[in-house]
Amino acid sequence: MVFDVADKVALVTGSASGMGFKFCKEFLRRGVKGVVLADVDKNLGEIASKEIAAEFGKGKAIFVETDISDKRQFEEAFKSAIRTFGQIDILVNNAGILNDAQWEREISINVKGTVNGMILGLEHYLQKYKSGLEAVIVNVCSVSGIEPLDFFPIYCGTKFAIHGLTLSWGLPSHYERTKVRVVALCPGRTKTPLIEDTTGKFLLDDYKKAPVDVALLRKFTQTADQVAPRMIEIIEKADPGTAWVVEGGDAPYKFVLPNRFEIVEKVYVYLTRDYQSNHQIEEMVFDIKSKVALISGGASGIGLRYAKELLKHGAKGVVLADVDSNLGATALTEIDRQFGKNKAIFVTTDVTDFQQFENAFKKTVETFKNVDILINNAGILNDETWAKEISINLNGVVHGVLLGLENYLQKYKSGSEAVVVNISSIAGVEPYAAIPIYCATKFAVLGMSLSWGLPFHYQRTKVRVVAICPGVTDTPLIGEMAGRNLSEAYEEIRLKELQNCKSQKPEYVAAGMITVLQKAESGTIWIIEANEAPYQFVLPDRFKFTDKIFLK
């Protein structure tokens, strides 16, 4: 069945200019009843409204000044749609910025804004006010949501997040209860204000020097006018929970993540690492002896296991950076008893507070004189308090990488290289309907790890960046999941999804982390589950697709 956009009403965020504005015009050409232009820029919105009225007639569009990171403003856009048109059938979550120099705002708009749209649209307005049998949400992702990007790693993380939440909210359990299809559009390089001017938008000046394949960019560059009709095709035909690449103005094709249970030949960690610097293979194992590690969320659970495992392997010292001082004191007592005194310190650390996180690094250097390993482990699983979840799981990791990769690990490593291990999850490589926002944060960690792990960053910093994705593990994070979700419907889904999950002990994850730390190449992802050795998860290279899947 093809979804007919005629006589439907669409709300498009970020639609006063650029691609969003082209989407609105394309909708009107296809006969929609009306469009809502939701944008933060009032001046551009008024200009866009006048242009639409001149081309399509009055009464076809309204402009609502909307900062999508503010849920109340976003909801007002939905209410205005209902007051004006009496229905709402399509939401296009298009608003976003590309500006790693203002990365906190970037996360707020690109991730939190999209979550606001999903909750308002999926759980309320599209369910209640759709005019037909189903409604559609299109989340505008990017090819940067399916492959790493060395010069904009945090932007890449936000787009990986949108990919993850789309797959999760697009699963059958959500479509069956809401009759709202959720799909992702991943445009390639498109001539819009978003990418035409990158002046002042890099995290650091060094990032401007990242290599660019100019020929490839030229080949696949497209206009917003070319993307808009392809977006309509996706709305008409795409199955829920799918992601579609549109580049070079060509027909949309499907991007599918590998099913880890269908990996026939698993790739395990080898002793060889190739840093692609001069086509020679450098054989080495990172020696943990005499090294110092800082572990966020290190006072309990897997974080404490990591600390103990590092000490078993001869680490000079470990720093437990955690928000819970009581657990920190207990953990220090355990470590003192098992490994002797002066092997560990505890530093009260809220990873969402940059100064507190930096203080943990400073205390590390003051105490041990060097810091060689950062394990970005702190995280929560609680979609009920999703804004906090994003701040800890995503912003906290960014703080850690900025402090480690760009400052302390470079300056105070004791050997030839240092290592950052970012803790993602199997929820970062496959969707889970019960925890879509948690999935988004863990997808984001993967995107940033892949980006910061690219050869450009290793060659300039001599810091490897890798990610591990533990499966379900016996820790308080999993044991206390009940009720920590968006609604009772999500709790019912959680109970069903958990039935198929096999749990493992934290000590197996810690041992696997050591293997990855010692041997894994920078910019790689490793799954640790079911008490097995770590194996690599590799994203497909879209340029090597031999049998592309197109819309039918």
The helix content, as a percent range, equals: 40-55%
Could you give the count of β-strands?
A: 20
C-alpha Rg (nearest Å):
24 Å
Say which CATH homologous superfamily of the largest domain is assigned. NAD(P)-binding Rossmann-like Domain
Q: Report the sheet with the most strands, covering strand number, pairing sense and barrel closure.
A: 8 strands, mixed
Strand order across the largest sheet:
3-2-1-4-5-6-9-10
Give the mean pLDDT. Answer: 94
- Structural class estimated from helices and strands: alpha/beta
Give the low-pLDDT segments. 271-283
Shape: globular
CATH architecture assignment of the largest domain: 3-Layer(aba) Sandwich
- The first-to-last residue Cα distance is 10 Å
Question: Briefly, what CATH class of the largest domain?
Answer: Alpha Beta
Could you list some keywords that capture this structure?
43% helix, single chain, 552 residues, Rossmann fold, eight-stranded mixed sheet, alpha/beta, 20 strands
Overview of the molecule:
The protein has 552 residues and is of the alpha/beta class. It has 2 domains: 9-255, NAD(P)-binding Rossmann-like Domain (Rossmann fold, 3-Layer(aba) Sandwich), CATH 3.40.50; 260-539, 3-Layer(aba) Sandwich (Rossmann fold). Helix content is 43%, strand content 16%. It contains 18 helices and 20 strands. It has helices at 18-29, 42-56, 71-85, 103-129, 153-169, 172-178, 193-196, 214-220, 224-237, 301-312, 325-339, 354-368, 386-412, 436-452, 455-461, 476-479, 488-498, 506-519, and strands spanning 9-13, 34-39, 61-65, 90-93, 135-140, 180-187, 190-191, 222-223, 243-246, 253-255, 272-273, 282-283, 292-296, 317-322, 344-348, 373-376, 418-423, 463-470, 525-528, 535-537. Strands 3-2-1-4-5-6-9-10 form an 8-stranded mixed β-sheet, with helices on both faces. Strands 15-14-13-16-17-18-19-20 form an 8-stranded mixed β-sheet, with helices on both faces. Helix 13 packs parallel to helix 14. It starts with 8 loop residues before the first strand and ends in a 15-residue tail after the last strand.
